[in-house]
Amino acid sequence: MRGAEAALGAAGLAAFLALGEAVPRLGLVEEEYFPPTSRIADALGTEVADGAFWTALGDTLTGWALGLAVAVGAGIVVGVLLSVVPYLREATASTIEFLRPIPSVALIPLAVLLFGTELRSVLLLVVYAAFWQVLIQVLYGMRDVDPVAEETARSYGLGTWARIRYVLWPTALPYVMTGVRLAAAVALILAVTAELVVGAPGLGARIAVAQTSQAVPEMYALIVVTGLLGLLINVGARSVERRALAWHQSVRGEVAV
């Protein structure tokens, strides 16, 4: 089953690349704006051979990893705290509902004002966007706890931390891993967006330079790299999720299929 899915995926990718080669060659679009796949591949090879490309890639991954780590840690801690202290959850509910819908890109002027084009501008946007993905999933997970199991834990004299460890956390963990997977993708999007708009060092800034200098194949090559990064991050996040939830019914069922 998985082999057939992989074969279909490879066939679809090959067809997409062939279409990207044929469309500009046939004159359906101008090569100046959409170069053939072969020219993009050549530009990608040139980029890979350039040391500045790897420096930009490292800058992007640094902003992504640091921002994601801060967002995940803060989201889990705040989510658990709000869940075990009902009055605190009620007091912050309206604030969360007000802040959560604000698009992270709307904070770009604030980030530039505070930190200019430094890494901290990228971190501000990444952390803000990824934090909500984790926090909301943690809150949902904590709400899904079986009240009978929680009352049983209380009746056996388990303290707050023991209940979190043995009752709340196992129930919330699938939600937490979903939040981490979503946050990982969102963090990459915001890292590249911040670099593209703010001008912070990274792949986004390199894409902006290629666009302004009319290096169209190089621009598309860098966009392909960001797409591959997103794919690798998603695959890695799913792998971590399956390992962390190997005991869970959903993963056991997935493996069995």
UniProtKB/TrEMBL annotation:
The chain crosses the membrane at residues 64-86, 98-116, 122-140, 172-199, 219-237. InterPro entries: MetI-like, MetI-like_sf. Keywords: Cell membrane, Membrane, Transmembrane, Transmembrane helix, Transport. PROSITE patterns: ABC_TM1 (PS50928). It is found in: Cell membrane. It is a multi-pass membrane protein. Its main location: membrane. It comes from the Bacteria. Belongs to the binding-protein-dependent transport system permease family. This is ABC transporter permease.
